[in-house]
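Final report, Chapter 2: Outcomes

The project's central promise was a pipeline that accepts a single protein chain and returns its three-dimensional structure in a standardized token representation, suitable for archiving and comparison. That pipeline is now operational. To close this chapter, we reproduce one record exactly as it appears in the project archive, with the input sequence first and the structure output second.
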Amino acid sequence: MVYNNVILTVKSSDDIDNVRELLAEQARLSSKEPGCVRFEVYHSQIELNQFFLVEQWASEEDLVRHKEAKAFTELYIPKVIPLVDRAPHLSDRVWPY
């Protein structure tokens, strides 16, 4: 199992609603991809310019394939990435096993 968590910080408050909509669409599309176990988007109630992606993929190959899919290549890279600072965190699951 591969766990990928991403912290996104929107650069301009004017773009928060747009980023929220784009990430919701990305999650909808990504969750249908082969090997996607979990793809969730969270919006911070404390720091309104922050979003969190919580992803779980069945294998490294599935995560690589995700980066070639429409949600990543047509939404995330060209439309979201220019509006945010991104901090990806490949993670190990601590609990539950």
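Archive annotation: The chain is about 35% helix and 35% strand.
This record, like all others produced under the grant, will remain available to the consortium after the project formally closes.
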